[in-house]
């Protein structure tokens, strides 16, 4: 097996990294450590535009609270909501929403069993709100439907003191790269409104759903009581998330944020980078028409998924946005072996989930194709036969 060397000069997908004459290059001028890193879309490096924005803020006004306020106004405007709150992380955005919405015991949060808020937020729902979690595995294996909700919700109006009433429905969109159809979100939110139940949407990667044409920002943000979105995933910023909702809700959330130390003294230095990242990867159009970089990364993800399937591999989830979930057990390869072999091909991998962000280079994509071909043409694995059962979601997610 021969592995091609990564060339010195790399090209990115649509991003302009100016080469400087005679100046030592760094990862801000050309693809850096993220060029062949498929582990996550959080591994991207800040771009030239982001760093330039910091320089401008520092020259202008290091305190620059005004910069954050303007950014929040911009987010409220493109999502069509009254107010927005900049939070240091997506976890903080979600947890502020839970804490702010959930004020009357007994109370329960109904959510997908695979939710980030349930699995990867250090049990914040329990410790910060004291709510019970009612977790549900969607019957279609992809996203929650109103039928799943109706089957598991506990309505307060039943007046049955034995049960814990659902006071908040928590949706994650997209989840594992799979988007919820807007119609389903609408059905669930309408049901929730009829029964006095709040809805929070964890839209850490909502930009991706919008870029892929599944909905517009205002369409989906109009449905829920609150929505969180991250700048640190596909958009590539180093810090920050946004929480949007009504004026009252945001005022309350701000109070909670202060009480847990989330208030930032000089926010301009981080919000400027988040704004530059948003403009660069998503653009200013709430319909996502300017999200060229995101759409390119979706195309690349789809291409990887197609190659895998053409070679006889199976997918665990459809590649609708920037995630590609490959069924490693069906291919007869352990996650450890997958990662190790990937390294030999100069690819950074982590379990069955690959994320294709916009800083992945064309060269890395070529390597990926070669790698997949190598993996699936291994005669030992064919001899072992393919295991038909897909891994359990919980196991898959444990390799995040
Ligand atoms: C990344 C992510 C978050 C936020 O996590 P952070 O660790 O704060 O970045 C929340 N929800 C989902 C679905 C995510 O992918």
UniProtKB/TrEMBL annotation:
Annotated ranges, domain Aromatic amino acid beta-eliminating lyase/threonine aldolase: 37-330
Record keywords, A-Z: Lyase, Pyridoxal phosphate
CC cofactor: pyridoxal 5'-phosphate
Compositional bias (Polar residues): 22-33
GO biological process, alphabetically ordered: glycine biosynthetic process; L-threonine catabolic process
Species of provenance: Xylona heveae (strain CBS 132557 / TC161)
N6-(pyridoxal phosphate)lysine: modified positions: 233
Protein name: L-allo-threonine aldolase
UniProt-listed Gene3D superfamilies: Aspartate Aminotransferase, domain 1, Type I PLP-dependent aspartate aminotransferase-like (Major domain)
